[in-house]
Amino acid sequence: MAKLAAITPTADVIVFNPLSWARKDLVLTEAQAVQPLGSKRILPCQPLPEGGSCFIAQDLPSVGYRSYRQMLSAQPGKDAAVIPVARWRTSSTAWNSTPRPAH
Prior knowledge:
Layout lengths: L1 H6 L4 E6 L5 E7 L3 E4 L6 E2 L1 E2 L5 E8 L3 E8 L15 E4 L13
Parallel strand pairs: 1-8
Antiparallel strand pairs: 1-7, 2-6, 3-4, 3-7, 5-6
């Protein structure tokens, strides 16, 4: 991870999938939009009531990562500045279980 951090621009979010199958996951960010690196698509982020925003990282490769550029605006060419902070997100599945009452 340290080698990956050294070559990654500071405005990027890296989403890592430690599992042995491809999947998607929710990512928290401060951006209004993100752009997958190597793509011209700009994905808007959903604002959260408690502050910040989120987006769904699609097609995360098994035991791999996908990088996203954080944008201040979801409109191409308008306010295309990036947010100058680095964030590392480790993707993990959260299991929520409720115990059954004893009979």
